[in-house]
Write a structure and sequence with these properties.
Elements (H helix, E strand, L loop, with lengths): L1 H6 L3 H30 L9 H20 L5 H22 L1 E6 L2 E6 L10 H32 L5 H15 L6 H10 L7 H21 L6 H6 L2 H15 L8
Antiparallel strand pairs: 1-2
Length: about 250
């Protein structure tokens, strides 16, 4: 196994893989740290889309379950994606102001954003709900068609494997969809002052490294589909940059 690992790729490819792996781990850690600091240190989440956070957390959870269902995933990778999914759920709980209320002797999760102490976030909540309605018109039919396509063309060991694999494929391919409500909120508010820019910059450099790795270093060892899939997050970040350019940052606005 060691010999296969050492001679599977040329020496320069192996060195590049080690360097890029280190940079990816560093950028992931920095983004993780700043992400927690940004959301933990705020009481007002005006301008942030709770539905973008919800779909992002769902995508991370689906990918974690898919990797867990696979027999070839290392524990370190599972731990990384598991922590990412937990943080994603934590961010959504904070921004959506989820609470547990007892009714009919049963616990119910309530969505309290825009109510009581977060009443000044009601404008963001209305815009967010409207943007998500548009996304659902595309997201739900597309995910259903994707699942049926996989069921018809591929074989799976169980229904659970088909479900998790189809959802993971959809999350990998259309993961950028989860940020569309946030883009819509920015457009309506004409502001990007509420965005966690430091976190986005770390994630952008992480994605940029993935692009270089896929198109120039490992281009002969990756499928064309995988190479083009690495560009999907770049499109969203470029839209954020464009919005930051046309909407002058004014921290006095929500």
């Amino acid at each position: 196994e060691m010999q296969d690992f050492l001679f599977r790729h040329p020496l320069h490819i192996m060195i590049a893989m080690q360097v890029i792996g280190f940079l990816q781990m560093l950028l992931t850690s920095l983004a993780f740290k700043n992400d927690i600091s940004f959301f933990r240190g705020r009481a007002d989440y005006s301008g942030l889309s709770s539905r973008s956070l919800a779909t992002d957390a769902l995508h991370q959870l689906v990918i974690f379950l898919y990797l867990y269902d696979s027999e070839h995933t290392g524990k370190l990778i599972l731990c990384q994606f598991g922590c990412g999914a937990l943080v994603g759920v934590w961010k959504y709980v904070r921004v959506a102001r989820l609470r547990i209320a007892w009714q009919y002797y049963l616990p119910w999760i309530t969505h309290n954003r825009g109510l009581e102490e977060s009443s000044k976030e009601s404008a963001t909540e209305d815009i967010d709900a409207k943007g998500m309605r548009y996304v659902k018109l595309i997201l739900y039919p597309l995910s259903g068609v994707w699942g049926l396509y996989n069921l018809y063309h591929f074989a799976y060991t169980s229904w659970w494997s088909w479900l998790v694999s189809s959802l993971a494929d959809f999350a990998y391919t259309f993961g950028f969809v989860d940020m569309l409500p946030q883009i819509f909120v920015n457009y309506k508010l004409k502001s990007v002052a509420h965005m966690p820019w430091r976190v986005l910059v770390y994630k952008f450099f992480h994605t940029f490294i993935d692009d270089v790795f896929a198109f120039f270093i490992m281009s002969e060892y990756m499928t064309q589909k995988h190479r083009w899939m690495t560009l999907r997050d770049d499109v969203v970040f470029l839209i954020f940059l464009y919005q930051g350019h046309i909407y002058q940052v004014d921290h006095s606005r929500p």
